[in-house]
Amino acid sequence: MAKSDGQIVIKKYANRRLYNTGTSTYVTLDDLAVMVKNGDDFVVLDAKSGDDITHSVLTQIIFEQESKTGNTLLPVSFLRQLISYYGDQMQMLLPSYLEHSMTAFTAQQDQMREQITKAFGETPMARNMQMPMQMMEEQVRRNTEMFQQAMQMFSPFAATDSKPAEDEKPKTESKDLKELKDQLRALQDKLDSMDG
């Protein structure tokens, strides 16, 4: 079976070798990283059990990329926060938030590229030019603020000295999310009253 629903099937054998059933060749983690960058959709299966091990292989690729380049994408503070959410009650919300954040980040990147093309035209210089620092810094600032707001939402028991201003609160909030926040506040009040 070379493909399943348009996905390329990669089999991982006990000797840790990876076999691309679509091209009938052995591949490396670097090859898989290139496939990801090219937008190729693949699934990694354990050759013996048939289990889907795509998640662990992608995590291994990230680990190797972080080790090789010396140019880490994941700051230590982010890794610490991420680790702290394992086993936490809010763990189930974080993956969808991170996925949404990366989608938004990618969309912002595409908008910036489009703006640069409009400003400078389709010249070789514009295609190879790195984004102006101001634009990148502004995007990083916005994404950092969005991430910090989400982390505050995921950590309702963290002590805060001041409440956010009304204009900083999201304009629309789903009913379920509001109910969950209300329940968490009520639980925190109960815990506070037990301490006192």
TrEMBL record:
Residue ranges of region Disordered? 156-196
Native organism is: Hoeflea poritis
Specify one Pfam family. PHB_acc
Residue ranges of every copy of the PHB accumulation regulatory domain listed in the record: 74-113
Q: What gene does this protein come from?
A: phaR
Specify the PHA accumulation regulator DNA-binding N-terminal domain's residue ranges. Answer: 9-68
Instruction: Give residue spans, biased composition: Basic and acidic residues.
Output: 163-196
User: Under which name does UniProt file this protein?
Assistant: Polyhydroxyalkanoate synthesis repressor PhaR
Query: What InterPro entries does the entry give?
Result: PHA_DNA-bd_N, PHA_reg_PhaR, PHB_accumulat
